[in-house]
From TrEMBL:
InterPro entries cross-referenced by the UniProt entry: Homeodomain-like_sf, HTH-type_TetR-like_transc_reg, HTH_TetR, KstR2_TetR_C, Tet_transcr_reg_TetR-rel_C_sf
Record-linked PANTHER family: HTH-TYPE TRANSCRIPTIONAL REGULATOR BETI, HTH-TYPE TRANSCRIPTIONAL REGULATOR RUTR
Residue ranges occupied by any HTH tetR-type domain in the UniProt entry: 15-75
GO MF annotation terms: DNA-binding transcription factor activity; transcription cis-regulatory region binding
The protein's name in its UniProt record: TetR family transcriptional regulator
The entry's DNA-binding region: 38-57
Alphabetical keyword list: DNA-binding, Transcription, Transcription regulation
Matches recorded under Pfam families: TetR_C_24, TetR_N
Source superkingdom: Bacteria
PROSITE patterns: HTH_TETR_2
């Protein structure tokens, strides 16, 4: 994750930083669409000049790359956690789903941007490819859990994976942190609904 004053060459600039630039860029991308957002739009929102933005990043595309990579890196870190854990595949799958909910809550704006890219640029195509890789890893874990007899054998593993993360990803459409539902409550609800219906009986 990018630090509060980090820049590719390690420099910072008084008054604002790359973190605040990313946070603002993602908000404007959501409001106007990535293609409909110009560096001038970002400069106006931040109250700075375009050259000040270029102090931190060379292009709008780099802002997009940093933003979607933030979400993807967090999700792949969850997969690395699962790979270091022992125990039944169903427990590791439970961990991946729960932690993915936590990532979505912690990085909601960035995950939302990731889920809305469509492969219209090199950065977007790379992000879509990494998303598919993540989905593939989840599918492998689902298959492993099914082979262990922990998941219902009458549901295709690929479909199970899509349904699980369809539910997780749908949170971006309605979850807001100030609605009184904290991260633990949300993660508990998702995993209970998912796994009470998926566990073999």
């Amino acid at each position: 994750m990018v630090g509060m004053t980090d820049r590719p060459n390690g420099r910072g600039r008084p008054g604002y930083d790359l973190e605040s630039l990313l946070q603002t860029a993602v908000k404007v991308f959501h409001e106007r669409g990535y293609d409909g957002t110009s560096m001038e739009d970002l400069a106006k929102r931040l109250g700075i000049t375009k050259s000040a933005i270029y102090y931190h990043v060379p292009s709008k595309e780099e802002l997009l790359r940093l933003s979607v990579d933030r979400a993807l890196d967090a999700l792949f870190a969850v997969m690395e956690e699962h790979e270091s854990r022992e125990g039944p595949a169903i427990d590791r799958l439970h961990h991946v789903v729960r932690r993915s909910v936590e990532v979505l809550v912690d990085e909601q704006a960035f995950v939302t941007l990731l889920l809305r890219v469509r492969g219209n640029s090199k950065v977007e195509r790379r992000a879509v490819a990494r998303r598919r890789e993540f989905d593939h890893l989840v599918g492998q874990l689902v298959t492993e859990a099914e082979r262990e007899g922990s998941l219902r054998p009458d549901v295709d593993p690929a479909l199970t994976s899509r349904l699980l993360f369809g539910m997780v990803n749908s949170l971006i459409e309605w979850y807001r942190p100030r609605q009184g539902l904290n991260t633990d409550d949300l993660a508990d609800a998702v995993t209970k609904i998912a796994f009470d219906g998926l566990r073999a009986r």
